[in-house]
Design a protein that fits this description.
Elements: H1 2-18, H2 40-53, H3 61-74, H4 79-86, H5 91-97, H6 99-118, E1 125-128, E2 133-136
Antiparallel strand pairs: 1-2
Helix pairs in contact: 4-5
Length: 139
């Protein structure tokens, strides 16, 4: 991703220089050709071109945003981090929208716990002396 961003910045620097704008810390990463904010129609038009190039149809910008948030949760990112990245007013908003993801994560977490205990011997099991026989303690 960093490589793509650096390539974009390099190309952008050349394009801006051609029209007399010097790239600086305040230059928009994704702006119009004259370094102003993009309008939503232009963004969606370009996104649909990208979608079409990879065989995706009937998707919106919101679908991309939803996928981003879902993947963050699947990677185990905290709700507060996802809330801030999405610009939601609080974590309750984020959690209300993405609770389906958390349900899937519950199953994965439960499986991890199961795996942890599969590899542990029961607390009431000890080895008897050096003979290797298992002795089960009963309360």
């Amino acid at each position: 991703m960093k490589k793509v961003w650096l390539e974009h910045m390099k190309e952008q620097k050349v394009q801006l220089f051609r029209i007399g704008i010097i790239q600086s810390e305040t230059t928009l990463i994704f702006g119009s050709i004259v370094n102003t904010n993009l309008d939503s129609g232009s963004v969606l038009k370009e996104l649909k071109k990208v979608y079409a190039s990879i065989g995706i149809t009937d998707k919106t910008f919101h679908d991309l945003r939803h996928t981003y948030a879902t993947r963050l949760f699947e990677l185990g990112e905290p709700a507060k981090t996802v809330q801030e990245l999405l610009g939601h007013s609080n974590t309750a908003v984020t959690l209300n929208i993405y609770t389906h993801v958390l349900g899937t994560m519950k199953v994965a977490t439960a499986s991890k716990i199961d795996d942890l205990y599969k590899n542990k011997k029961p607390e009431n099991e000890i080895l008897w002396g050096n003979c290797g026989k298992k002795l089960h303690l009963v309360k």
